[in-house]
Sequence to fold (629 residues):
Amino acid sequence: MTSKNKWLSTPYIVWSVVFIIVPLGMILYYGLTDTTGAFTLDNITAIASAGHAKALRVSLLLSLVSTLVCFLLAYPLAMILARVQVKRHNFIILIFILPMWMNFLLRTLAWQTLLEKNGVINHVLSFLHLPALKIINTPAAIILGMVYNFLPFMVLPLYNALAKIDINVINAAHDLGANNLYTFVRIILPLSIPGIISGITMVFIPALTTFVISALLGGGKLLLIGDVIEQEFTRTSNWHLGSGLSMVLMIFILINMVLSAVFDKDGEGSML
Amino acid sequence: MNKELIQLIDISKSFDGQMVLDELNLNIHENEFVTLLGPSGCGKTTTLRILGGFTSPDKGRVVFDGRDITQIPPNKRPLNTVFQKYALFTHMTIAENIAFGLKIKKKSKSYIDDKIRYALKLVNLDGYENRMPDSLSGGQQQRIAIARAIVNEPEVLLLDEPLGALDLKLRQEMQYELIRMKNELGITFVYVTHDQEEALTMSDTIVVMNQGYIQQIGSPESIYNEPENAFVADFIGDSNIIPATMIEDKLVSILGTRFACVDTGFGTNRPVDVVIRPEDVILVEPAEGTIQGVVSHLIFKGVHYEMEVQACGFEWLVHSTTLFPVGKEVGIRVDPFNIQIMNKPESEDEEAVIIDI
Fold:
């Protein structure tokens, strides 16, 4: 961009200073001070306490499982989408993006209604004389909510990466004697790594930090690290501890982002 | 002539109701450099893809060395393909690219290493083993694609416009390289291109295609000197295609003037087309010419001058090393053996010409 046009970015710079830089600075300040304003690392080391460590472990586990499930669901779909003729694929992609346009809370609440003990699904099951589903307020419900909400974020980067592979590269592998499995393992999978990394990042980070899904579908029985932080800010009003834990969470996010930057040089995930 | 290696028998293929190939028949011989030549959409790439196994024909058979391979998938066919835009595996080194086919065949490490060295030497890229494809120029990538294919010792190498993305100078260099490689390897090359100069330079046999039909099959010389119809004449090089009447054997009336020619068997007083190559039109003083005209355009082309001469209501394209300025009156003469007589096409879609090559 020429220097003449630089002023056009002013509104965005103001926005990011007010709503990104300043809040981050505040978290940093609160996280490293106690109620008297003195410097301390207690808020950060608090992650090691039994309750917090367990919440972090559970969060990591549930978001990893959700990410894996998303990947296993999305990869075959993205492969099909990438090879469908242009005329039709826009429509199919639309179907997968459509839920993303609806409010996230609304969609999660809908699942709550569906899964409840006296919810829609159990009504149907009892009508069919089938045993009721006891899934609400369990880790499985949380994973279901995460997968449902974040699946499109896995599909799109994978689709982008797979659609970019020249069909003749795959033909060349067959031509040189490779069967379908060998071609997939040696050619398609390695060439789609940037998309895989982007997809994992875009599912794992929101899954790791969510508190809405666990609150609505987990019934507050299972505390995720996101719930803990939320409670420190809203109920306990301990902004210092909340900020400290947020900073710990941020480290995990940063690790993921660095990995993603290393592998996704072409920015396959940047379409979103 | 060597024995027949590949036979395409009554191959038809259509995409979305559009006929791309219509009952195509083609025989390819061992150790031959065959070029499928034609404008885009003529069916040449489809023919190659059917040979490679990437597209299956709606109808017809592909026979390889007496064996029907129509239903055999590409990975089981004894031929390899060099794709347009190279199709290298960008996540692998050059050595890994070349070794890809050999590893599938479970060759020993030392065999593979020898082959990689040999192939890189053949394509003049010694020492590139550990480079990545992206760090190579277009011409180098193309040569790696060839190396990757030939290490598998295919009996036939299919090349799909492999030089299309290269600049003119490199393209000419690669043409000589390909001829050299073919002679060194002693295998059959089936080459697809829309570039008539490429086809003339490299081929033993040229198959001129248009609209899913084979228009003419022959050596470069016969295709150039004796085009069988106006399409071939027009597609291969510059030409004057002039409506004429065959008066009798060895005598043709062009634009109302009688010219001696060498063709026979077209009957008497029959409308035909004649082809006269621009370099075969001889410009002389008006009194010495068979017909007279005036030079209307002049362009210097390097080796020769390109002139347009208005004579008898036709614009003659002339290539000559002698300069005749614009506005000068000239005479036109054509040697009898340089007048090529062709039947008029019966319809827009030329009839398929089925000939063994």
